[in-house]
Structures are given as structure tokens and as C-alpha cells.
């Protein structure tokens, strides 16, 4: 027992015993633990297979602008950013990149890059201003039809995200994703999108980063809807998001798959968790537990057994009991729910930016929080490189490990990296050498995972097509391959050096061994004389002060 200043008696929750290190996770850590820093930095030359999906990404609120144009309704992000003081410099997405009025300019960039895939999102309030089909806005539908038709005309595959955080404000007024009614409301919206755009869209993503929606939106309260209930709201929201995802997956399965032949998935976010010490069992358990809480929260129900990871159920359930609650703060699924959710993704889609080192801690029980439920603490990884976003330091070697973990944990699925990129400051316009280094090293780690480890990586989507409104950072950082001058009303776009590099990577389908590199490898002719050398002055010394004579011989 331990007593804190507020006199609340706290019982320490024991960690999982060392014998419960997840075997599949252990495979990955043991596989890579002998790696030296030098080995991590070795460059791998090779290519991805034909048909690899190269692309770039964006999202509606970040690029479209036209926040109230042609009948569009307000989203929670409109409401949040238009309140002074919420975003640096009072930035907002009212105009953003003005993509709503610049389809031709956006298509020109995509065509010049020669990407195969463009990932973008639909603005729910642009299509249904009040969230419901009864409020259908045809001009919003027309905008997306023009964009999709333009992509198809240029042989670019649309990868469409149905929900990228911009919930219609009207639906937040009924408690948003904390309201189970949202499951059917979301299904109505997705059903309409399948029917309207599905003849041309063959790759659907239901939610972008549901973990961010649940934790940052309803736990930390950092992003809209800014609910600060860290102990229970994130779990309730995630429960509804999983059911909503499963519902719209089955809707596509039952009504559209046979005629349209598309794929449906969900983009989950993850950062690789490296144990502080691979030789300490509880540190390995803590790293795995961190991955289960972030990624497994959604991936385990969808890709494994329809239910939450055991680590989550054990941690939250036991802590809830010790906190005097009558039931776990983590909701439970019925057998019917589990069967409905299991298997509701055709491929594995993942967003990733960084890596953290994780160690076990014993958290206080008087704080009910998704964060403290994990009994883990994160720190920057070895070799971290600073970026313009402090929480997203560049650690390329972590990507290969994460991809291997996904392969082992979820039964070797086909994997699409649906977001990966680096932030640079506003002082960087087109000379973005940091992004060049990032793309070279991160993509090469994905190539290693594919070629050397047998991970079925099927696509890589760079984040992002162009600088845009970067959520809580506003316009103070940029992720784009193209520079956008937000000081000018015309929002001109200019390719950065990284755009030229990415063009070459895509054209070459990776990093083939070119002649200028290949010439460095070879053999000397038979009979070549190998030897060593020395000089007497370098190896002899006479220590006169001790009258000792030392002669070194080179053996």
C-alpha cells in the first residue's frame, strides 16, 4: 500500500509475469536485438515488385478550404479553429490550399509526379451539411466527381478516406462518436458514398487514425471535440468506432463488392516501441503492451479475434477493480459483436512517423486514464533526428521493426503505409534536404522489410502532396512535397527538391543498384599482392629516462 498527499490509498498493480512475454512479439525483438548502430545504417539496394502502389496523401480539411462554399455545412474543425487562440497565429482551414477551387492545379502536381495513387478524404459536411442524407448537397458531390474523374483520366488510382476527423458540427451536438447512434448515421453516409463514387473508387478507408480520434479528441481534449475525459470516454468512443467501421465494411460487402470489386480497410496509427532493454523481460512486456494499447486496440479486434488485446483487458480490468469500480472502464463485446467485427479489413493500412523507447513504470491508481493504464513510459529512441514537430523525431530503423511486428502479430497481411513523412519549418521553402534524407532512409527500411524479411508491403503513400493546414500546428510547419505560399491569395504551389527525389524513387520502383554504385564492387585479379607496412620511426622508441629499450615488430 502507498499513500499520496491526497490521502487516497493506492494499491500497486503488478506487471505481467515475465513468462507472459508475447511469443510473436518476442520473435521480432530477438531478431533485431543483435543489430549494431552500424548495421542499422547499412543501405539496401533493390526494388519493390511490379505493381507497387506509390502515392501521396492529403485530407479534406487540410487542403480544400471553401469552408462554407456552395452549401457546405460547418465541421467540428471549423468551429474549433475559428475561435481565436486555439491555433498558432489564429490559423484555420477556411481557405487552406484552396483545393476546392484548384482541382486543375492539384491534378497538374499529381500528373507531374507520376504517382499511381492519390489518397484524399471526403468532407462529410460538404456532402451532407447536417450529417444526414436528407441534407444532400449536390455541389459538394459534383466537386468530388470532378476530382475523381480527373484522377482516373490521368491513370491515378483514388484511395478515398471516408472520415478524416471533420465531423459535421450538427452531429457533435448529439455527442458525436460518444453516441452509439453514430454507427447507423455513419453507415448512411458511407452507403451513399459507395453508391455515388464506387464505380470509380476501388480503395476505401473508413477512418483515419481512430486511436487519435478517441484519445486526442475525447481523452486529452486536444483536438475537436475537445472532450477531456481520459479514463473512460476514449474506450467508449473506440468501441463505437469499431462497430461503425464493421458496419460500413459489411454494407460494402453485401451491397457493392460483387459489382464494384473494391477494397475496404482502416488506417491505424502506430509508432514502433523499442524496449529499453531487450534482456529485461518486463521491459519487453511493456513495449508490447504499448503497441497493443495504441495499434492493437483496433487491429486486434479487426485482424485477429474480434476482441481487444488481452493486455488491454487485463490492465484496464484490474485497475478498474482496484479503483473501486464495479466494471471495467474498457467495454466488452458480445460474441455477436466479435463475429461482426472480426475480419473487417481487406488489407492492413498504417500511418507511422516515429519510434519511441519504452520502459515499464508503475502508474498511480488514483488517476483514471488510458495513458496510465498502460504502465509504460516513452522516451526518444537512439539515433533520433530532430524535426519541426518534437513528438515526431525521425528514426528510420524503427519502420522495419514495426513492419516485421505487424507481419508476426497479424498473420502476414498485405500492408499499405498510408502516411509517412516529416515536418519542416516555415523557413524551408523548396530546399528541403531533411525530407530528402527522410524519404531515402524510411523508404529503404520498408524495402528491407519487403526484400530481406518477406513482409508483404504493397504500397507507400508519402505525406503529403503539398504543405497544408497542419491541425494544431496551423501553418507553422509543412509536410509537403510541394511548397504552398499561404501569404498569397492565389496559393501558388512549387515543387520542392524532395518532389524530384520522390519522382525518381517511384520511377525506379525503389533503389536499384546503378552503374555508378555497382562499379564500387568487384575483385582484384588473381595473384594480387596483399601486404601490410610500417616504418621504424613509427614503431620504435627508446625510453632513455628508464634506460629501457622497446622494439616493436609488425607480425
Automatic annotation (TrEMBL):
Q: Report if keyword Hydrolase is assigned.
A: yes
Q: Which GO terms describe its biological process?
A: carbohydrate metabolic process
Highest taxon listed in the record's lineage: Eukaryota
Q: What is its EC number?
A: 3.2.1.21
Instruction: State the Pfam families in the record.
Output: Glyco_hydro_1
Query: What stretches pass through the bilayer?
Result: none
UniProt keyword list: Glycoprotein, Glycosidase, Hydrolase
Catalytic residues at: 419
One MF annotation (Gene Ontology) recorded for this entry: hydrolase activity, hydrolyzing O-glycosyl compounds
Assembly, per entry: Homodimer.
UniProt record similarity statement: Belongs to the glycosyl hydrolase 1 family.
| Name of this protein | beta-glucosidase
Source species, please?
A: Sinocyclocheilus rhinocerous
Amino acid at each position: 500500500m502507498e499513500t499520496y498527499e491526497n490521502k487516497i490509498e493506492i494499491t500497486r498493480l503488478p506487471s505481467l509475469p515475465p513468462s507472459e512475454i508475447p511469443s510473436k512479439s518476442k520473435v521480432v525483438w530477438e531478431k533485431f536485438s543483435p543489430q549494431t548502430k552500424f548495421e542499422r545504417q547499412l543501405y539496401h539496394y533493390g526494388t519493390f515488385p511490379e505493381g507497387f502502389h506509390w502515392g501521396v496523401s492529403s485530407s479534406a480539411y487540410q487542403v480544400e478550404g471553401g469552408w462554407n462554399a456552395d452549401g457546405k455545412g460547418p465541421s467540428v474543425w471549423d468551429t474549433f479553429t475559428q475561435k481565436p487562440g486555439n491555433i498558432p497565429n489564429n490559423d484555420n482551414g477556411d481557405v487552406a490550399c484552396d483545393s476546392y477551387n484548384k482541382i486543375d492545379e492539384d491534378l497538374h502536381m499529381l500528373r507531374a509526379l507520376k504517382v499511381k495513387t492519390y489518397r484524399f478524404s471526403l468532407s462529410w459536411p460538404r456532402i451532407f451539411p447536417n450529417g444526414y442524407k436528407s441534407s444532400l448537397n449536390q455541389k459538394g458531390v459534383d466537386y468530388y466527381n470532378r476530382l475523381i474523374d480527373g484522377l482516373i483520366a490521368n491513370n491515378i488510382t483514388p484511395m478515398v478516406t471516408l472520415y478524416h476527423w471533420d465531423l459535421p458540427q450538427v452531429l457533435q451536438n448529439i455527442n458525436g462518436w460518444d453516441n452509439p447512434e453514430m454507427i447507423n448515421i455513419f453507415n448512411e453516409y458511407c452507403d451513399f458514398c459507395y453508391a455515388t463514387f464506387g464505380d470509380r473508387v476501388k480503395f476505401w478507408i473508413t477512418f483515419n487514425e481512430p486511436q487519435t480520434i478517441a484519445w486526442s479528441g475525447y481523452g486529452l481534449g486536444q483536438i475537436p471535440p475537445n472532450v477531456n475525459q481520459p479514463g473512460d470516454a476514449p474506450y467508449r468512443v473506440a468501441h463505437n468506432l469499431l462497430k461503425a467501421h464493421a458496419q460500413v465494411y459489411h454494407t460494402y460487402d453485401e451491397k457493392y463488392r460483387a459489382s464494384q470489386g473494391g477494397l475496404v480497410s482502416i488506417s491505424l496509427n502506430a509508432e514502433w516501441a523499442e524496449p529499453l532493454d531487450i534482456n529485461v523481460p518486463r521491459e519487453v512486456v511493456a513495449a508490447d503492451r504499448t503497441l497493443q494499447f495504441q495499434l492493437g486496440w483496433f487491429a486486434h479486434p479487426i485482424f485477429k479475434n474480434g476482441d481487444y488485446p488481452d493486455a488491454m483487458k487485463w490492465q484496464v480490468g484490474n485497475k478498474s477493480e482496484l479503483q473501486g469500480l464495479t466494471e471495467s472502464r474498457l467495454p466488452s463485446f458480445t460474441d455477436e459483436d466479435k463475429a461482426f467485427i472480426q475480419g473487417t479489413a481487406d488489407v492492413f493500412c498504417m500511418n507511422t512517423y516515429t519510434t519511441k523507447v519504452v520502459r515499464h513504470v508503475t502508474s498511480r491508481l488514483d488517476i483514471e486514464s488510458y495513458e496510465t493504464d498502460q504502465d509504460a513510459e516513452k522516451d526518444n529512441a537512439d539515433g533520433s533526428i530532430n524535426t519541426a514537430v518534437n513528438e515526431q523525431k525521425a528514426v528510420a530503423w524503427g519502420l522495419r521493426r514495426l513492419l516485421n511486428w505487424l507481419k508476426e502479430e497479424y498473420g502476414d497481411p498485405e500492408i499499405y503505409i498510408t502516411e509517412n513523412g516529416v515536418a519542416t519549418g516555415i523557413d524551408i521553402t523548396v530546399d528541403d534536404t531533411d525530407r530528402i534524407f527522410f524519404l531515402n532512409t524510411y523508404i529503404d527500411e520498408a524495402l528491407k522489410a519487403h526484400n530481406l524479411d518477406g513482409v508483404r508491403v504493397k504500397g507507400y503513400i508519402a505525406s503529403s502532396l503539398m504543405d497544408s493546414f497542419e491541425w494544431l500546428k496551423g501553418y507553422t510547419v509543412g509536410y509537403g512535397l510541394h511548397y504552398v505560399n499561404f501569404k498569397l491569395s492565389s496559393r501558388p504551389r512549387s515543387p520542392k527538391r524532395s518532389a524530384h527525389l520522390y519522382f525518381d524513387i517511384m520511377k525506379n520502383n525503389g533503389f536499384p543498384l546503378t552503374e555508378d554504385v555497382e562499379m564500387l564492387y568487384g575483385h582484384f585479379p588473381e595473384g594480387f599482392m596483399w601486404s601490410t607496412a610500417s616504418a621504424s620511426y613509427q614503431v620504435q622508441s627508446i625510453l632513455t629516462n628508464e634506460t629501457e629499450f622497446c622494439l616493436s615488430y609488425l607480425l
